[in-house]
């Protein structure tokens, strides 16, 4: 039987074996929510990079560039880290380069060892569940967290995925059970459940409440981003 595991922060990734695993990266507030939204709205590809410098190199090559640090847009780049920025019709067919504080760094850390890397959000939860059911590999949910620390929203997403896949996958470690039980407590009102979380407070100070509510909506899009040749594209 396939196994499902959860890594609560990228700083713990070295404790997990990825050789037979699809890694699902989750950065709910807000990188992976942006990635799902962008591909759903017709962006051709999103190339995630770990550093601002790498993003600038791609920008110089003609990519539309998105750079975020500490929840704010880096000066000199076209896009920030809000899902609403990715709904622009001018981005249809575009190639986007993206770097964020936590999400793209998580992808970079998982990339050398994972069988595949997919991107998860509440926005594409159902589509992701269906895709993972059809795959032959184990699954590791990598929560992007915040600067090496676990966070509530990514752990809740991991729990939602575990809840949906528990009949097809063995839930192996306590991190999975923790995430699942947390989700069971909060699933009836996710927005209220995360209201006092650290990243919600961080975003609210910046006036980004609408991104929080948007990113906690379930099954808005039937899109599963997968990393191919260094770029995220939608699975056909």
UniProtKB/TrEMBL annotation:
Keyword Magnesium in annotation: yes
Molecular function as annotated in GO: 2-phosphosulfolactate phosphatase activity; magnesium ion binding; sulfopyruvate decarboxylase activity
SUPFAM superfamilies: ComB-like
Keywords: Hydrolase, Magnesium
EC number assigned by the record: 3.1.3.71
Pfam family, one: 2-ph_phosp
Broad EC category: hydrolase
Catalysed reactions, as listed in the record: (2R)-O-phospho-3-sulfolactate + H2O = (2R)-3-sulfolactate + phosphate
Keyword Kinase tagged: no
Cofactor(s) needed: Mg(2+)
Gene3D superfamilies in the cross-refs: ComB-like
Family: Belongs to the ComB family.
PANTHER family for this protein: 2-PHOSPHOSULFOLACTATE PHOSPHATASE-RELATED
Stored HAMAP family: ComB
Protein name, as recorded: Probable 2-phosphosulfolactate phosphatase
Lineage summary: Bacteria, Pseudomonadati, Bacteroidota, Cytophagia, Cytophagales
Gene this protein is translated from: comB
């Amino acid at each position: 039987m396939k196994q499902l595991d959860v890594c609560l922060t990228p700083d713990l990734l070295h404790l997990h074996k990825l050789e037979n695993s699809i890694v699902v990266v989750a950065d709910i507030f807000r990188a992976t929510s942006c990635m799902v939204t962008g591909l759903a709205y017709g962006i051709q590809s999103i190339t995630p990079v770990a550093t601002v410098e790498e993003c600038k190199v791609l920008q110089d090559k003609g990519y539309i560039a998105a750079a975020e640090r500490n929840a704010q847009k880096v000066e000199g780049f076209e896009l920030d880290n809000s899902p609403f920025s990715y709904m622009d019709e001018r981005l249809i067919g575009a190639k986007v380069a993206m770097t964020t504080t936590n999400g793209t760094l998580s992808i970079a850390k998982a990339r050398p060892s994972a069988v595949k890397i997919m991107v998860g959000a509440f926005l594409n939860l159902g589509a992701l569940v269906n895709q993972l059911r059809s795959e032959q590999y184990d699954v590791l949910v990598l929560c992007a967290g915040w600067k090496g620390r676990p966070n509530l929203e990514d752990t809740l997403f991991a729990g939602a995925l575990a809840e949906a896949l528990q009949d097809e996958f063995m839930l192996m470690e306590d991190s999975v059970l923790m995430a699942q039980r947390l989700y069971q407590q909060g699933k009836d009102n996710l927005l209220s459940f995360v209201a006092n979380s650290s990243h919600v407070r961080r975003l609210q100070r910046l006036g980004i409440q609408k991104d929080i509510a948007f990113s906690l909506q379930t099954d808005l899009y039937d899109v599963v981003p997968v990393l191919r040749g260094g770029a995220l594209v939608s699975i056909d």
